[in-house]
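Entry 14. Ran structure prediction on the chain below.
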Amino acid sequence: MDSRRARRMMNQMGMKMDELGDIKRVILQSDKREIVIEGPQVTSINVQGTKMYQVAGGRESERKPIQGAASPAPVEETLPEIPEEDILLVAQQANVSIDVARKALEDNDGDLAQAIIKLQTR
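Output, C-alpha cells:
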C-alpha cells in the first residue's frame, strides 16, 4: 500500500498525523534517569481526540538527573486560532450558540465536520 493511500485510510478512521520538523531534542525524565534524543523525527498523531507522539531516530544518550535542578516549567497548551467564519458556520449548521460552536471547534482541533457531527449527535 502506498503512503498516500495509507494516509487517506487513516483520515477516514479519524487519525491525523503531522510531522513536527522543528524539534531539536526530546528529553524523557524519570526520578532515576533522563534519556536525551538529539535530532529526532517527531510525529504528532491525533486519534479521536487523543494526542500521541512518535519519536524516531536521532542520537540517544542517558544521564542521571541533575540534583537540585528545577523541573522544567509545565508547557502551556495553546488553542488553535479558529476563524470567526468557521464558528458561525458550525453554529448555523448545528443550530447552537456561538459559544457552543467555538467550544466544539476547540475540542476538535478546528475540524469543522467533526464539530458539526458531534453537536448534531449529542
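The helical segments are 3-12, 84-94, 98-107, 112-120. Will compare against last week's run tomorrow.
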